[in-house]
Amino acid sequence: MTKTPKTLRPQPDGRVKGAGIPLERAVLVGVDLSARVRASNSAAAGARIAAAQSESESIADTADTSEGKQVAAGAAASRAAAPGLDADESLAEFRELVASAGGEVVAEIMQRRPRPDPATLVGAGKVEEIAGVAASTEADLVLFDHDLTPTQLRNLEAALPCRVLDRTQLILDIFARHARTREGQLQVELAQLEYMLPRLTGRGKSMSQLGGGIGTRGPGETQLETDRRKIQRRIDQVKIDLEAVRRVRKQQRQRREAVPVPTVALVGYTNAGKSTLFNQLTGAHVLQSSRMFATLDPKLRAIELPSRRKVLLSDTVGFIRNLPHTLVTSFRATLEEVAQAEVLLHVRDAASTYGAEQKAQVEKVLAELDAMNKPHIEVLNKIDLLGAHEREGLAARGEVLVSARTGEGMDALMKAIDGALHSDPLIDAELRVPQQAGAVLAAIDGGMVVHSRAYEGNMVRLSVSGPASLMGRLREYRVRGAKDRKMAASNEADA
426-494 has which CATH code? Predict the structure, then answer.
């Protein structure tokens, strides 16, 4: 049979797959375990949750192992969870992930079941269908929009004519492609190793170690145990290296804290436009891409607010639905920038059809980082894709509307950041400074908003608003008004 020539396309790293680098063809498999029968009242909803719990118990009874419990927990979570993305929307998002990984989607298959199959997730009949589609399309790999247990992965690889990857493996691969710094590469490697460790396969207990019975006299240590020990050693070493990274970051933060410059962190769903907004606010030229997870390594740049205060703006990795826990753990060194920030800018895609679900997923990760109680500003990006009527509806909700691509709404966003900062509050004051004190006047012009300026002989009288840190250094030049004199008199009386 004559094979269909494979398409040539540019890849995320700029290469064109073609000569010697064939484009990988992928079959996508969506899995809907939520049984989309919507309850019309709370009693029906309660019955659905009870059924999910019952399924969890029955699956755990038939597979009393850690894998069986994992399948059971997945079934219960899928059935009992509040409605979010439906299966088709989830598959569309998964398609974007495949594009970010540089794959070509040649077929899509959807399996709807009331519960996961412990052996193959999708059932024996559907596995045969997937095998036929993979063979007919000459696919290089089959991608499941669901996490697979080690047993499911092993069974599917045995039944299908090509490689099998689940959602977590795909996300890890995208992270590995986009990691550029040593820190990012270490964090991705740790997540990959922790994911790989329980999925190693061997020849069974009879070959694991020396025994005293018939048939148990194995050669000692199998390749499986050797691999596990090597991986565990590497995990321990990577953790040591990442701890060194955390110490360096802590030292950098301590040096920054010596000079009171607060940090504002951009957080949000992947591909919400955080890097484009970062470039718009800072004038930087960090990579901005429509592909998911284009940013892995945090970037810091200083910006000046309308009050003349300076802050550090941090661009961070994007979040996604069902972000693997190993990634959250591995990237904790990077995400500490979020935990240490004074204000969070939650950037959301205003044109997204499932923005509420994206918001919930971001807040879930922020809760894991203990950052939910921080002051945050809801920033709806990509308003240039909305009509006038849609904009009016969003504006009524009090959120900041911006377009990072066109620059619309940047002034309002800067004012919102100014109003959310509390660590170095603004103070209004009257100052009298000698004209020959050029350094003081330059500091005032560079770090404060000057409302008025008058010359009285060789003195300059200024009405200013500025940060408390700078005002404290200029206290000798402050003109004490009636309020200040009353407070000073009260303090003297108390003394």
Answer: 3.30.70
